[in-house]
Design brief:
This protein is of the alpha/beta class. About 35% of the residues lie in helices and about 15% in strands.
Length: about 400
Amino acid sequence: MKVTGVRTILLQGPDPHGLGGAERTWSVLLVRVDADSGLQGLGEAPYMPGVREAVTYCAEWLTGRDPLAVSAFERAMLYGGLPPYQPQMSPTATPAGPIAWAVSGVEMALDDLAGKALGTPVYNLLGGALRDGPTVYLDRSGPLDPSDLGAWRELALRSVAEGFRALKFDVEHVAPELTADPWNRTMTFRQVGAVVERIAAVRQAAGDEIEIALDCHMSYDVETAVRLARAISELDVKWLEDPIPITSPTSLAEVRSRSPVPICCGEMFVPEQFRLFVEARACDIVHPDVLFVGGLHAARRVADYADLHYLPMAMHNNGSALATVAAAHVATASPNFISLEFHFFDATWLKELIRRDRPLFEEGRLWLSDAPGLGLTLDEDVCREHLAPGETLG
């Protein structure tokens, strides 16, 4: 079996509840790998600068090769080989950035294709299932009017009513009207107090059994992060995510050493970056995203490395239902997995662009079956309705 083609398809549509509850347009970059056997593999890559060009580079190398040689593809694209092997290094001379994001989408499609060819679910290619239905945590960012405590309660109550038992909110959108200076990475005591008050409303509405996490999107400095962590500790927060920029393991290690709340990081990391932060004792929870880490096998390596250090793995997820299901295959095969993210609860088309043998979510879990590959197909009607200008589905 040989690869005959690799292509991308861009979809776009509304997300009624984006960052801070504001409506936005969201883009999904699908990846399809075709083989001469007639099989196709489906994947998803992040729609970010340079990714489509990097997928083209991957396609040029991959066409005519064995689609089951997934490790060879990943290593050739991200690291290269010794002369006279070509390529001798990643096209960006680093295993991070657009080439890693492109490899993530193509590798996902290769895994889907391999599972179909071998007649087995992808999770069996990753070591086999350890659980039936990975737990999903719902990212709600925040309400459009963050000063309205009733809106915070409503967000919590609706999410719990839908069966979810774990929620996440974005700290920088909890009290944005109180930001004194948008450039110096600090929060005033008043703003920290407002964060506590508003997340307390969520806790009161959701109840003590619901897990609540907070994401800082790499926004703050060390002292602000520590002050925030100490203030929110009374709310029994599951983790504080990316409280400072993710370029300094030693700085995040300082936050972790002073924080009463577990520190979670890694949504943009490749495996080497996870190694640096784990070695620096900079995090309590690793947080890979299958769209950025380099693929499903790379995410499994991160899980195993964290497990060797007795650290749990949550899974960041910035993708549609397709990437969510792919991440669930990693989650079900990873012993230290605790929770998988989903963003787009209100953007129905991002859940409906795939078809599978059961609903996407049931009681806050994503149940996988024994269907081969990722166990899904595209809903061509939904995809066609959301094709970006100039795109075709065929």
